[in-house]
């Protein structure tokens, strides 16, 4: 039986008794996640497609895991781990990243959970957190206080700026996780949640927040983008989005002169934008 069918079978069985076959299948599954061979979502001819079985496998890991003291360093012994305050499911320890990957995890309060993919040359500035099921492709920078939530898919050469929050989407298993495509800049203090897709090369200006319920106004193409049924909110490639406001036009909101936060596409990326977001290569 292939891994997908095995995971589906084990996930559907809810006896509460977990024999060796569960842990063997989960170990194989988690190794494939760590290697980036399987992903919670992947590009297809018609856009991004969710791999429901992969999300089920991740949930299975939580179901079968026992809460144990967690070492915060691989070298820590069981005895010293016992004294630490860290506790988590034994199925999700810290991820081990081979030195050959050229990944930098700068010391200082960061954590990368097992069962996620970290590509070559990724730089992780402390403190930051990458959750299970996430996929972070080559050359991406994860700056301080940034979160890569469960199953989020981050492309190549993405810059997740300080305090950028990429929300996790684990349940429901059919829901698309957040997707940040190649060469995107997510500015400081941004939040991207609920399966939003940010197209290649887009720029989210500092403080932009995108959720499944947020309409995005495109001043250049005279269009409004929203989530539509199964179709996620999608930011077009190269769009430059900044935080804006729109007037409330009815009821008390109008009377009180209120406005609501709304992201606005003010332009599409040009040379000036490239200059504004260029990374300092020497730091790499
Ligand atoms: C979006 C950003 C990259 C600017 O892009 P740009 O292409 O240089 O933008 P421009 O200067 O050409 O501005 C175009 C218009 O948008 C407005 N604008 C630009 N950035 C804006 C912002 N963040 N919020 C509101 N309006 C903004 C400008 O005032 C200008 O309007 P105008 O034509 O009416 O004067 C920049 O504002 C930004 O947010 N950078 C990210 C900073 C950051 O988080 N760095 C991370 C470090 S860890």
Structure notes:
The chain has 284 residues and is an alpha/beta fold. It has helices spanning 3-12, 20-34, 52-64, 78-83, 251-255, 271-277, and strands at 41-44, 47-50, 67-69, 87-89, 104-105, 111-112, 117-118, 123-124, 129-130, 135-136, 141-142, 147-148, 153-154, 159-160, 165-166, 179-180, 185-186, 191-192, 197-198, 203-204, 209-210, 216-218, 223-225, 234-235, 239-247, 259-268. The strands form five sheets. Strands 5-8-11-14-17-20-25-26-22-23 form a ten-stranded mixed β-sheet, with no helix packed on it. Strands 6-9-12-15-18-21 form a six-stranded parallel β-sheet, with no helix packed on it. A hairpin with a 2-residue loop joins strand 1 and strand 2 (47-50). It is globular and about 60 Å long. The termini are far apart. Coenzyme A binds next to strand 25, strand 26 and helix 6.
Quickly give the structural class. alpha/beta
The value of Rg in angstroms is 20 Å
What's the tally of helices?
6
Shape: globular
Strand segment tally:
26
Q: Layout of SSEs?
A:
Blueprint: H1 3-12, H2 20-34, E1 41-44, E2 47-50, H3 52-64, E3 67-69, H4 78-83, E4 87-89, E5 104-105, E6 111-112, E7 117-118, E8 123-124, E9 129-130, E10 135-136, E11 141-142, E12 147-148, E13 153-154, E14 159-160, E15 165-166, E16 179-180, E17 185-186, E18 191-192, E19 197-198, E20 203-204, E21 209-210, E22 216-218, E23 223-225, E24 234-235, E25 239-247, H5 251-255, E26 259-268, H6 271-277
Parallel strand pairs: 5-8, 6-9, 7-10, 8-11, 9-12, 10-13, 11-14, 12-15, 13-16, 14-17, 15-18, 16-19, 17-20, 18-21, 19-24, 20-25, 22-26
Antiparallel strand pairs: 1-2, 3-4, 22-23, 25-26
Helix pairs in contact: 1-2, 1-3, 2-3
The structure holds coenzyme A.
Coenzyme A is lined by residues 143, 161-162, 187-188, 203, 205-206, 240, 242-243, 266-267, 272-273, 276-277.
